[in-house]
Design goal:
This protein has 150 residues and is of the alpha+beta class. The protein has one domain (7-135): Orthogonal Bundle (Arc Repressor Mutant, subunit A), CATH 1.10.10. It contains six helices and four strands; from the N terminus they run H-H-H-E-E-H-H-H-E-E. A two-stranded antiparallel sheet has the order 1-2. A hairpin with a 5-residue loop joins strand 3 (134-138) and strand 4. Helix 1 (7-20) crosses helix 3 (40-52), helix 1 packs antiparallel against helix 4 (77-85) and helix 2 (29-36) crosses helix 3 (40-52). The longest helix has 17 residues, at 110-126. The protein is elongated, with a radius of gyration of 18 Å.
Amino acid sequence: MSGLVSRTAQHAIRAVLALSAEPERPQGAADLARRVGAPPNYLSKLLKTLADAGLLESRKGSGGGFRLAKPLSEITLFDIVDPFDRLSKNDGCFLGGGLACSSEAPCAIHRRWQPIRDNFLNMLKGSRLAEVGPQEKPRAGGRAQRTRKS
């Protein structure tokens, strides 16, 4: 993934994709952390944030863990990224430094950046996890096999 989303958001996406492989089975944060290559305490906090956002269900105790709260077809990449990167609230200047620009008072790069930002947000909002997550693929003998879409 590119630098358009934070490393935190990238870990969150990978964790949700890992959960999507077995959406009905609660999975522990430590196991997920190992599978996505993130520190367990860090990933646990990310998963809690996603649960607070309504994307995951969390259950403590024996047989507990995290699982998807919604079908894959209802979760977008934006849903996963926004709790961490606050893209919906980030209308600051591309040039940074606390500059505030807008369509009414644009900076030198605003008119070039705005369509790119809009396209990026639209891509995240239009990309459902069902499209980027594990897919059913027929295997020899007629049985389905889960694979990841490239």
